[in-house]
Task: inverse folding
């Protein structure tokens, strides 16, 4: 039976009509933004903007750092998500709340907090140890971009992975343990293969988040051209010098990447961001 | 392999089991009955090492087993609903315990073929659990539990939710399992006919205590 068709009372029709009306209004707003972006520029103007060496550098840096961030987020997210889904321990609610802090904090505050952290004694030691090992510092350098993106993306990856592990029957691991597996083997051979969709969803979500991260990167890494400029910083920089066409061209790349990520997720039957 | 519980207690969430005593001689087919929520599954988990004992002594084959890892208890466990691994084929289920038990490739292959033949799973070996019927899933779960040649088999309502024909088939197989596999069995059920047909030793769990019944 259709939600507005025959057999529905007037009250039902008003109720469902309101829901549908609000839904359509929101979808129109999202589509309107995308269409406005696309119609603002021409392919020639876009090509010209994308030929700029600074933008090409930002493009490469954005995709590289987002990929590294996504891998790191999954690397940390899998064990943390699994632990939170399977184990009870004193203070678990507090730990759970701390893991969500990067999701609710204003992005600028995350960047500022990282900047302050790396000005403390421990932070300086970390920075000098890192520089000695890799020949490059952290703050206002490329590693700071990854760290700033990771601070936010990892929280989303953990949340996704925790839900994934929550939905898997813990008795599978129990059975595996009675059949000769250690807990580690049960995790690798039984749990992780069953959780692959969740792991991939977490990775895609972390990648998309990292690619669009602006606030923390701006504060912790700066927006130095040909050095720490990522695509969202490019939009900001191009807007600030009045080159609206270049800003829109870069925005469209970000939109395409985000939509591509969502479509890839849906194509693989994943629940990216759901 | 005998099974003995002496004053065993466990606490899972807000549920308290025991102190419970149970004595099942080697080679016996024990059937445990009891009302829903009486702790039958918890008891099996406790014996399997999946739920911690808070007090008492558990012996499997005369060996104190309180501290043994589940993998070292020599058991096969079939939980309620089978609980199959959704990414593995039927053949991989049958090969699971031999693989982690360090068997040779040839012996593993032989064991898979043997169990597939015995449980009528030959045509399903390449299938994954999705799409298997209830009876097929239970047979796969049973095969997986038996594959490592356990000395003690723990079955949690293995015949529930099966149609009449499948119920009779699997019950018939379970009736021969002790001779076939040289295994001691503890089988949880709600069904008195099933208990009469299969059991050599009968127990009843009520309010956390186990009583032998005739």
Result:
């Amino acid at each position: 039976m259709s939600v507005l068709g025959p057999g529905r009372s007037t009250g039902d029709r008003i109720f469902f009509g309101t829901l549908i009306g609000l839904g359509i209004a929101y979808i129109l707003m999202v589509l309107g933004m995308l269409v406005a972006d696309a119609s603002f520029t021409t392919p020639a103007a876009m090509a010209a903007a994308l030929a700029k060496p600074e933008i090409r550098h930002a493009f490469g840096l954005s995709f590289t750092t987002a990929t590294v961030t996504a891998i790191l987020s999954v690397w940390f997210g899998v064990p943390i998500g699994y632990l939170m889904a399977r184990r009870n321990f004193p203070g678990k609610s507090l730990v759970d709340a701390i893991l969500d802090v990067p999701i609710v904090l204003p992005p600028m505050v995350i960047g500022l907090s990282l900047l302050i952290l790396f000005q403390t004694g421990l932070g300086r030691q970390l920075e000098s140890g890192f520089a000695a090992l890799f020949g490059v510092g952290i703050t206002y350098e490329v590693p700071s971009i990854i760290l700033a993106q990771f601070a936010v993306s990892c929280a989303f990856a953990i949340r996704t992975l925790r839900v994934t592990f929550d939905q898997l029957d813990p008795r599978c691991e129990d059975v595996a343990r009675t059949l000769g597996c250690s807990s580690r083997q049960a995790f690798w051979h039984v749990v992780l293969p069953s959780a692959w969709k969740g792991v991939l969803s977490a990775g895609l979500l972390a990648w998309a988040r990292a690619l669009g991260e602006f606030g923390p990167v701006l504060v912790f890494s700066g927006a130095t051209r040909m050095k720490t400029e990522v695509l969202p910083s490019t939009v900001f920089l191009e807007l600030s010098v009045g080159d609206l066409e270049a800003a829109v061209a870069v925005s469209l790349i970000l939109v395409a990447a985000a939509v591509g990520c969502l479509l890839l997720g849906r194509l693989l039957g994943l629940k990216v961001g759901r | 392999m005998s099974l003995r519980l002496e004053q065993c207690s466990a606490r899972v969430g807000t549920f308290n089991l025991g102190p419970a005593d149970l004595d099942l001689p080697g080679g016996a087919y024990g059937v445990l009955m009891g009302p829903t929520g009486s702790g039958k599954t918890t008891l099996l988990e406790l014996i399997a090492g999946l739920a911690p004992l808070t007090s008492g002594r558990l012996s499997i084959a005369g060996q104190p087993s309180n501290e043994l890892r589940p993998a070292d208890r020599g058991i096969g466990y079939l939980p309620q609903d089978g609980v199959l691994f959704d990414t593995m084929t039927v053949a991989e289920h049958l090969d699971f315990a031999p693989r982690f038990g360090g068997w040779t490739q040839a012996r593993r292959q032989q064991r898979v073929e043997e169990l597939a033949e015995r449980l009528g799973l030959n045509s399903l070996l390449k299938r994954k659990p999705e799409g298997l019927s209830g009876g097929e899933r239970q047979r796969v779960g049973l095969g997986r539990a038996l594959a490592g040649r356990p000395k003690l088999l723990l079955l949690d309502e293995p015949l529930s939710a099966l149609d009449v024909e499948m119920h009779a088939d699997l019950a018939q197989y379970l009736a021969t399992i002790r001779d076939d596999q040289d295994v001691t069995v503890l089988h949880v059920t709600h069904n008195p006919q099933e208990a009469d047909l299969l059991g050599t030793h009968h127990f009843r769990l009520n309010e956390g205590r186990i009583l032998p019944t005739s």
